[in-house]
Design goal:
Strand content: under 5%
Largest sheet: none
Number of helices: 2
Structural class: mainly alpha
């Protein structure tokens, strides 16, 4: 019997997405300075950059 892979889905606004991308890029740069492998950070950064966009209605917060 095959075990199912667990996945996580995040719903981020444009600002939050930018924070994630910048944090991953900073981590990647730190790893490069330390001459350490960046493979996993590269993979996640590309996923964040290529994540599909979905327009949603915003509830009016009062």
């Amino acid at each position: 019997m095959m075990e199912r892979e667990e996945r996580r889905v995040l719903s981020l606004d444009q600002y939050q997405h930018g924070v994630i991308v910048n944090a991953l890029n900073d981590k990647r740069n730190d790893l490069i300075k330390e001459k350490r492998p960046t493979d996993i950070v590269d993979e996640v950064l590309l996923k964040a950059l290529d994540a599909p966009r979905k327009k949603v209605r915003c509830k009016d917060e009062r």
